Amino acid sequence: MVKSVSCGKCGSGEVLQGVRPIGGAHEEQLKVQVFEKPNATLFKGAVSVPLLAHVCGACGFTELYAQEPERLLEARRRAKHE
Question: Region 48-61: what's the mean pLDDT?
């Protein structure tokens, strides 16, 4: 995860790191997803990882970061070899 201590927009040092974004009716944590077998009809081999946010307490600028991005990268590499 990025270790930035200042806001990329306003430069403030008041950045909340690792905030859990939620959404949907059940307030589930937001995720991103990659398929290992994107052309398959069933069993596409979905690999999902949660998102964490960094939120500037001064201006509200928010950046999203995938936890364990290496899992997504590996899944994408496997998809290219399909």
Answer: 97
